[in-house]
Structures are given as structure tokens and as C-alpha cells.
Amino acid sequence: MKLFTKYSRVNLVATIMVLVAGSICYYFIVRYTLLRQLDNTLKVEEAEIIDFVKNKGQLPEPTNYKDQLIRFKATEFPVRRRFRSISLYDQAEKEKDLYRTLIFPISVQGQNYEVSVSKSQAEKEDLLVLIVIITIGVVILLLLLQFLANRFLLRKIWHPFYGTLGSLWEFNLTKKQPVPYHPSDIDEFNELDNAVHQMTDKIFQDYETLKNFADNASHEMQTPLAIINSKLDLLIQDQNLEEKHVKQLQAMYDAVGRWSKLNQAVLLLTKIENNQFIHIERIGRSELVDEKLIQLEELVEARKLKLAFDKHDTVVQMNSYLADILLNNLLINAIRYNVEKGSIRISLTANQIKVVNTGTPLAFQPDTIFDRFKKGNYSDGTGLGLAIVKQICDKYNFGLSYHFEEPLHIFTVRF
User: Fold this and answer.
1) DSSP of 59-100, one letter per residue?
2) For residue 164, is it within any domain?
């Protein structure tokens, strides 16, 4: 859930709760005020009746008006003065109405009476209903205004934040384009913008440092490797060497070769991770497979492998060098880990390429086959061939999978 939506929901729920609670309190306060006003009117009537009894020595006539009732009832029991709301039948309206009643005692010529003075509460209730309706209307209007304010005003306020977020999504390290500024009158958004720029500047510096280190390290290592390799060539050709020395030199020669291949593979992985292969072109996959099979023809014949290729003319959008490396590593892997007089089948369709080769079961877990430095039974490799394939597929969002159906190893790249 977006922060803007979360904030709007929390704010709206909190506002509704506050307004509902406030409205309830407001209702009871207004009702209490109106009843107190009505009670004060009844007290005035009480005072007039008491004055009339004092002056006349008798009770006034009972009244039965539409909005006021005065009744007298002789009693022998003490009467407690009290206010109450009761429903009385209205003869004129032929219905029951709510009345506010004051009951109090009075004594006339030694006789105790219970006096009830009632006034209609209907007008007050109607007024209260009107106040409640107006209050509900005001609450709805406030909620509507708040919703519109959250939708438009807050969206405008958060615009710099979403601008910075969008720039981060579009950030590309290889293009070396700084993140644009999104000035705002809100301090927190300006601080976020400054922090993003400091972070991206540091990333650019670290990227350049890492790239230069990888290039320089690879270049510097190639020189001594070439020197060692050439010296070993001269030593191996020396006619005066004994056989045991030749074997030792051959082992050194092979180790230097693997070191050189390892250095090149690690450099290639670093360049792919740093996104240095940005040039993209349309590549005919069928033509590329034909070229690789011609290049690897001697290796296939040396292992006496049967080769089958199901062609399908399609193209793929990617860097040509990485496409060559991807296919080369898959085919070299199929040749290197095959069995004598085994088979290789290459199946090319519109959306995938599948390389199937015979071979012995893996000596490790199949789900780790694309890990770096994971070697099979053939230990002369660097253990980075399939890791490079995985890195290239990840770069272009290609699907890569492996499974074993004895005696077949099946690698599938889905474009």
C-alpha cells in the first residue's frame, strides 16, 4: 500500500471517529440545554401557582391547552418534587406526544395536592432533530472537503517525493547521468533529495574505482602470465631436459593456462555485472549456432560425438559478444562433460534454445550447477562457464533452467 493511500485512510478514519464522537457529545449537550430551558419554564409556572394559592387561598383552574397541561390531584402521601418526560394523549391531534412534566406538592386549606405541570416537548425535539440533521450535513461536507484536500493538495505536496522515487527507478549506473533535483518547500523532501545525490555520487565513484581496478588488474596480470607462458614454452623445447622435468614443466604450463582462463572469466563476469556491454543488435540465432558448430567441429570429432541441430530462423536483441559467449559456454559444457561416442542435440525454436547432451549424473546438487567455481567430474575447467551463462541470462531477463533425465543433461534458455 502506498504511503499516500495509507495516510489518507488513517486520516479519514481518525476524522470520522472524532466527528462521530463529537457529534454524539454535541447531541446530548444540546438536548440537555433544551431540557434545562424547558425546565426553567416549568419552574415559572410552579412559582405562579404557588403565588396564586397564597393570594387566593385556593387552587387555580386546571388547564388543558395544546402545549401545556396543569393538573391537581389530592393525596394523603408525601409528594417528591421531580422532573420527568412522559407521553400523554393529545385529544386534538389524536396521538401521543412527549411532554416535560414538573411534579411538586402544594397544600390548600389543610389538604395536600400533587400538582403536575406539563409542557409539550415536541417543538424541542423537532429543533433537536433539525440540529442533528444540520450537524450530519456539516460532518459530511467536512469529510468531502478533507477527501478532496487529501486527493489534490496532498498529492501536490508529495510530488517532489514521487519525482525523486521515479528518478531512482530510472537510475542507470552505466549512463553516468546524475539524478535530477526536485526542489521543494518541505525540508524533509529536500534532505531526501540531497541524500540521494550524495549516494549516487558515491556510487559513481565506487563504480569507476571498481571498473578501473578490474581492467588494470586484468591487464597487469596478463603481462606476467604471457612472460611465464613464453618462458615455459622455451624450457619445454629444451632437448637437455629430463623426462621428469618435462612433466613438471608441463604441469606448470597447464596451471598457467588455467590461470589465464580464470583471469579472463572473472574479468568477463565483472564487466557483465558492471553493465559494460550496452551495445545491442539483432542477431540471427541459427546463423550463430552454425558458426559455433564450425569452430567446435574438431572437438566434437575428437570425442566422436553425434551432433543434431533442429534449426529455426529467429533473431534475438542482445550484445553480439555476449551472445557468442553464451552459446559457446553451453556447447563447450555439452562437449566437455559428454561421454565417449555420446550425442549432442541443439533445438532452436521461436522463444528458446535447448542444448541436450549425454553424460554421467552430477556429483553435486543440480540446483547449484550455475554457482561460481562449481566443477563436475572434468576438473580442467575454471568452474565459471555456466556462471557466466547465468549472468548473461540475468542481464537480459532470459529464463535459464537445467534438469537431468538419465542419461541426458538438458539446458534451456527462454528468450
Assistant:
1) PPPPEE-SSEEEEEEE-SS----EEEEEEEEETTTTEEEEEE
2) no
